[in-house]
Amino acid sequence: AVDVSHDATMTYLSLRRGVYILPHYLLGMRVDKAMGPLNAWWVKKMMPYPLHGMMMTAIYNLVVAKHSQMGMPKPDHWMLSCLPTMSENLGNRIGDGKVKIVGEIDHIDGKVVTFKDGSELEMDAIIYSTGFKTDFPFFDENFLTIEDNKIPFYKRIFHPEVPNLAFVGCFQAIDWGFLPIMEKQSKIVASYFAGEYALPTTANQKKDIAREQKLIAHEFLSSLRNNYYLHGPTFQRDLVKELKRGLRRARRRGKGFGLFGKTRSDASGTSAITQSKAVASA
After folding, report:
1. CA torsion sign, 31 to 33 to 37 to 40?
2. Alpha helix (H) ranges present in the chain?
3. Rounded to whole angstroms, how far apart are CA atoms 28 and 30?
4. In sequence order, what DSSP letters do the residues of 225-248 get, joined into one string?
5. Does the structure show a pLDDT above 90 at 244?
6. What is the pTM of this model?
7. Neighbouring C-beta atoms of residue 73, cutoff 10 Å
8. For the stretch 20-51, what's the b/e string if a residue is b when 16 or more beta carbons lie within 10 angstroms of its beta carbon?
9. What is the pLDDT of residues 168-219, one digit of tens each?
10. Which of 112-116, 170-174, 212-216, 269-273 has the least mean pLDDT?
11. Do residues 27 and 85 touch, judged by C-beta distance below 8 A?
């Protein structure tokens, strides 16, 4: 919207709900440096939901909101229960009258947009920002189908019933960058296929996935986008701990997966197979 507003006579931004807008810089620092320490795993642990969100919302309202939410509807949720939007100039463009906030769209007929309140506007161009759907079209849908962006993988990596398949990057995170999370996932994947890391039982994997889904439903705003949401710093810490647990499991069992060699079966619930077939990255 900000980029388009520099060329369009008027840019309209349709919102279903209020959102939190973060500038690139805050208090003379990059926003990740200014607010990053407040999103640390230990802060989240000391202030479980909804306390952490309440604290972040209060700080946002005190330091940021008057600048960046000019003319925007007030969010109906705690900050960080949905991913904030990063924009340095949206508030300025709204204040300058170049971007106008409008309500939710009801339907579109040609170039005429009708909103939920019954009002209409004729547009020259419409940009759809409807989000993403997690999908793996290279797999048969009878083998793997993701419903409503709910990721059925242990640690967002392993399918509990397919031991020779791994995924990296199946998440949306409250964090200042996703690459550190993917790197920690990749270390687990590499250790697994090298035979140094062992998974827990299939039952325990499914139990952990169910626990995570329950946490998402409890802490995050209900939406398709948030169904694969996670708290980045907490998840990174858990991945580090999980790698250590998996290394211990492998030593106790005297086996690993083994990328190029055979593995021995045991009572762990992890199927024994002779060679890996695929590592998928998303």
Report:
1. positive
2. 2-5, 31-35, 41-46, 51-63, 65-68, 90-95, 179-193, 202-219, 232-253
3. 7
4. GGGGEEEHHHHHHHHHHHHHHHHH
5. yes
6. 0.85
7. 13
8. bbbbeebeeeebbebbeeebeeebbeeeebee
9. 999 999 998 899 999 999 999 999 999 999 999 999 999 999 999 999 999 9
10. 269-273
11. no
Round to whole Å and give the CA distance between 71 and 79. 18
Task: Look at residue 118 and tell me whether its pLDDT is greater than 60.
Answer: yes
Write the CA distances from 147 to 134, 136, 144, integer angstroms: 8, 11, 10
Please report the DSSP string for 167-205 in residue order: -S---EEESS-SHHHHHHHHHHHHHHHTTS-----HHHH
Decide the pairing of beta strands 21-22 and 85-86.
parallel
Contacts of 171 (CB under 8 A, 6+ apart): 151, 156, 178, 181, 228, 229, 230, 235
Q: By the 8 A CB rule, do 219 and 47 touch?
A: no
| Contact indicator for 181, 236 with CB cutoff of 8 Å | yes
- For residue 238, which of 124, 157, 131, 148 has the smallest C-alpha distance? 157
Which structure tokens are listed for 157?
Answer: 């990596």
